[in-house]
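Re: weekly structure request thread

Next one in the queue (307 aa):
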Amino acid sequence: MTVMASLEELKRGTERRKRTNSFFYFIFLSATLVSTISLIVIFVTLGLESFNFFTHVSVAEFLTHTKWTALFAEKHFGVLPLLNATIITSLIAITVAAPIGVMIALFLSEYASPALRSVVKPAVETLAGIPTVVYGYFALYFITPNILRNLWEGLQIHNALAVGLMIGILIIPIVASISDDAMNAVPLDLRHAAYALGSRKSDVALRVVFPAALSGVSASIILAFARAMGETMIAAIAGGFRSVLTFNVGEAMETMTAYIAQVATGDAPHGTIEYQSLFAVGLFLLLITAVLNYIGIRVVKRWAIKY
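Done, posted below.
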């Protein structure tokens, strides 16, 4: 009887574990499907509206023409001015964020004590939590008039330089946090071996840890660049709505996200070609960021060092 009771209890315990595993499998699968289905819905929605747009405007005109006047009487739908502004501001941003973010990660990983790290890392990540509209107005009413105009005579009040600088500050936590995680994943044995050979801390940080974490650092920069391309409020507030193909960062420019924000506020009636252009620009931007994310994933898989 005792053996039979033990077997019965073991059977009930096994069934409970199976039910628990099935329950959590369903919960985790549902969470995964939410993100996957959301992405599919976004692509389908943008694709359908973009299809209607491209029945009136050829893809060749959209990708190669240099004039964008979707909201004017004489309409042109060449996306290059918007793409140019987006790339310029993003390049300025990543030029700011990449070196600062990597240096922060090296400090947190190799130099900071646990107590100091517990203060500095949350402080850096707080930058990502500040509303971007605050960055936009800070660039427009402080950075440009009080700093940049003192260094650059004739700088316009709306300009791509201020936009890029503020977006750069915004994406520093992305580079710093991901790079820090990559550096912390480097085994301590590599550090100890370098110290045993007489290496200085700077040599260990720059010639051992940084190369070993290079795949993660590279991925953080690529992902931060994609985030910079998708920033809206800073570009809309501090960059202006001047969709002209120019390489002068001291002039006003309109990024793709700024144009989307402009049309989404009601400047174009629903169903018009101007309204449909919003979805075409959105789909184009989404495809670019998707490619950048894919490149980031491939970089990690290709260059990651397995220990």
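The mean pLDDT is 87. The chain has two domains: 2-55, 62-303.
Next request, please.
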